[in-house]
Write a structure and sequence with these properties.
The chain is of the alpha+beta class. It is 22% helix and 23% strand.
């Protein structure tokens, strides 16, 4: 019988930077990458989860203006249960955010992979976000003479 190694959650160190980058670019679940994460290495709100010494998840939140912090970085290997990962990480993440004056934690559920597990942990959907993208970089030519107010 193959027993899964226990998980370890700790603060991301500079030695972890290549592993964090690999997780953010190679996980099957869409990663949340809304911040310059390398500027926060070593902060107690930037966590890595390891299984048998192998990184399987990263989670980072930053306080914004007001009493709200947002998850800025989140990536999780596909073989790890989202709920189990949240149960390991949130208790480590929330106390330092509270010490910073945070009263709410927001999560932009990119790809929808964390939504059900978050709702099971008392997160509530507040808004729907619709994004539109342009596939190429061609923009029509316009001069100041063409602009009308």
């Amino acid at each position: 019988m193959n027993a899964r190694p226990p998980f370890e959650v700790r603060v991301v160190s500079h030695a972890d930077e290549p592993l964090v980058q690999h997780l953010l670019t190679h996980t099957e679940r869409p990663a949340i990458r809304n911040w310059h994460w390398w500027e926060h290495v070593g902060e107690e709100t930037f966590l890595v989860t390891l299984s048998g010494g192998v990184p399987v998840g990263v989670l980072m939140a930053c306080r914004d203006a007001g009493p709200v912090a947002w998850v800025r970085i989140a990536a999780l290997a596909s073989h790890v249960a989202v709920g189990e990962w949240l149960d390991l990480c949130l208790p480590r993440l929330i106390p330092p955010l509270r010490r910073q004056g945070t009263r709410r934690l927001g999560w932009l559920d990119v790809g929808g992979w964390a939504g059900a597990a978050l709702r099971a942990r008392w997160f509530q959907r507040e808004t729907w976000l619709v994004t539109l993208g342009k596939g190429d970089h061609h923009l029509p030519h316009a001069t100041a003479q063409d602009a009308h107010v």
